Amino acid sequence: MPAKTFYLETFGCQMNAHDSEKVVGTLMAKGYTQVPTPEEAGLVLYNTCSIRDKAEQKVYHRLQQFKRNGKDKVIGVLGCVAQQEGERIFERAPNVGLVCGSASYNKLGELLVQIEAGDRRVTGLSLDTDEAFDTPFTRRDNPHRAYITIIEGCDKSCAYCVVPFTRGPERSRTSESVMAEARRLAAEGYSEIQLLGQNVNSYRDPTPAGWNFATLLGRVAEISGIRRVRYTTSHPRDFGRDIVDAMDSNPAICDHVHLPVQSGSSDVLARMERLYTRDEYIERIDWLKNARRIYSITTDIIVGFPGETEKDFEATLALLDEVEYDSLFSFKYSPRPNTAALGLEDHIPDEEKQRRLVIVQEKQRAIQIRRNAGLIGSVKEVLVEGRHQALEQWIGRTSDNRTLNFTHPLDGAASLTGKYLPVRVTRSGPNSLVGESVTVV
Ligand code: SAH
Ligand code: SF4
Ligand code: F3S
User: Fold this and answer.
1) What's the pLDDT at 1?
2) Which of 185-199, 326-340, 410-424 has the lowest mean pLDDT?
3) How many beta carbons lie within 10 A of that of residue 128, not counting itself?
4) Which H/E stretch holds residue 314?
5) Mean pLDDT across the stretch 411-429?
6) N or C terminus of the chain with fewer C-beta within 10 Å?
7) Pairing of strands 145-149, 151-152
8) Nearest residue by C-alpha to atom 11 in ligand 1
């Protein structure tokens, strides 16, 4: 392999984004330099996602591009497709030299040594590791907001989902190591922390302290210097009232909960093996709506799960009206390898899934237009994320996870990035707000 240079492209969720930050840290500690294009790199890495077929296909598309002009490079597939496909990737894409799933990233250093020694095919595919992937150096992408993984893997078995296969069984980090990382980040100047896991609220401290998620959340939010704490994703089944209490009593915990429902029909939820009914889900929404603060609530919806009738689908639409989500992600059901739903009957044709997807998205768009318009005139604190040069606006994020772009008297004169400022909302759209800073300078 030529010079120790690498290129890394990341697909998928925030867990993958954060894993990539740790992978970059590991490689840099081994003397590698990151380069901005695959052409310049000796080692080309893809951190992959397999949640839907489309995500998986993207990776093969990338690998295809190296068929002709990638002979002098080592190509590596990391992440969820790596774990799912394992050594089959070598057959499908013979130019690949490294295949490594997320549970084996603590072996990356050794795998790199093997590659440098000339091994043509190296793998890290064990799922039974119980060490967390901790690296002395994590190269974080954002200087103000930092991710912390608190729990890896997933022990649920939702009938449509590959994650238990691609990330293995649930493993919680010790509360000690999470707290130490959070304190270090605060000392380094990070003011926002996002706790990550496929089901953060299944967190269970493996040490005798035995903290649950609500306790950990509260303790992280008490660290001095930490102004905002977010967490994602929560599973409704494990979403206890104690989490709402922790949020209510700690203003540093952001006004936002992402609580994926998937479907508004209890029949579909049962077939999905989601472990809650529509009523149990609504009970949790009621806790949030009757809480001491106003929380924005967002969700994920799957349309066209096998056997989803028109009546089931209408139950999902009725749920959107009832909850009035602040935002949602919606997906057409995508059949995935190894999952139980493959064996279900009544798979729904793509055109019908597409029709239902459009209906969900149009309904939600109308809800968001209405909800966001209701915020005009209010003042919200934003963390400034950067500047939108073309619009001559600063980009801000509110505690309730809205984008609130704004003008400021200082304009481009000094950087406001990383600051917390009050902004008055003056205009709204379906996906964002616009306002002006109310700071007098
Ligand atoms: N752990 C989270 C989900 C993470 S995956 C939870 O349990 O809520 C993110 C989202 O992708 C899911 O909420 C689901 O809406 C969607 N998704 C997962 N598998 C899918 C599939 N096979 N087809 C379509 N969407 C899927
Ligand atoms: Fe997938 Fe279900 Fe686990 Fe979420 S809880 S990661 S949807 S198996
Ligand atoms: Fe995708 Fe793996 Fe995340 S499948 S959504 S990258 S856990």
Assistant:
1) 52
2) 410-424
3) 8
4) helix 310-323
5) 90
6) C
7) unpaired
8) 51
Task: Please determine, looking at this structure, whether the domain spanning 379-437 carries the CATH number 2.40.420.20.
Answer: no
Average pLDDT score, the chain: 94
Q: Whose CA is nearest to atom 12 of ligand 1?
A: 300
| pLDDT on residue 130 | 64
Q: What gap in Å lies between CA 357 and CA 351, rounded to an integer?
A: 10
C-alpha of residue 51 to centroid of ligand 3, in Å = 6
User: In this structure, which residue's CA is closest to atom 1 in ligand 3?
Assistant: 49
How many angstroms does the Cα of residue 382 sit away from the middle of ligand 1?
A: 29
Whats the size of the chain, residue-wise?
441
Specify burial of residue 253 (Cβ count, 10 A radius: 0-12, 13-18, 19+).
buried
Spell out the domain ranges in the chain. 5-124, 145-373, 379-437
Query: Is the model's pLDDT at 69 over the cut of 70?
Result: no
**CATH fourth-level superfamily of 5-124:** Methylthiotransferase, N-terminal domain (3.40.50.12160)
Mutate to test the pocket of ligand 3, among 10, 13, 18, 162 (most ligand atoms within 8 A of CB): 13
Of 59-63, 160-164, 321-325, 358-362, the least confident: 59-63
Can you give the pLDDT at residue 93?
Answer: 87
Name the residue at shortest CA distance from atom 5 of ligand 1.
51
Rounded to two decimals, the pTM is 0.95
| C-alpha of residue 11 to centroid of ligand 3, in Å | 8
Any idea which fold 145-373 has? pyruvate-formate lyase- activating enzyme (3.80.30)
